[in-house]
């Protein structure tokens, strides 16, 4: 599956968005990307969030169950690519996503890395990552939750070579840990601690959304 540009959108771009959705959801036993919250699948919600942000282009990296998941988003103005080596882990998919997005837009200032299983990510958060980046000049702007830094996170173009070296299950957090604190900024995201890996997480998320 090659990159599929689903929109003729012509827009100046400085910060791209990579949504990682390639995993097999082995702990859940079914594709988490297709779980529904308020009648919308997680993958649809993630892409919609990206499209409501300042990020452009928006690229989705699929892997396991790609054809099935793609049906949920193929009509949206995003780029979609399948990582043929998705089984090698999140780091490999991130590396593949970076290469893919730079082939679309080679002159990006930065990229935001986002997962599809953090249901409380919204456009406001993504935009705050971008605003903080341009305000501070930090190499990394990460989401902060439970006293940890994680994704969604923005990475300056000077870190692209480091992202391109990722292997296996080593993801964006490994890069964040390697950067001096003086070159990192953070944006509070209390609900970032909630991601959906099992049905307990899913039921908890449903309860929070329906409060």
TrEMBL record:
PANTHER family per record: MOLYBDENUM COFACTOR CYTIDYLYLTRANSFERASE
Stretches that traverse the bilayer: none
UniProt organism field: Splendidivirga corallicola
Taxonomic path: Bacteria, Pseudomonadati, Bacteroidota, Cytophagia, Cytophagales
Top-rank lineage group of the source organism: Bacteria
Protein name: Nucleotidyltransferase family protein
MobA-like NTP transferase domain ranges (all copies): 18-179
Alphabetical list of Pfam families matching this protein: NTP_transf_3
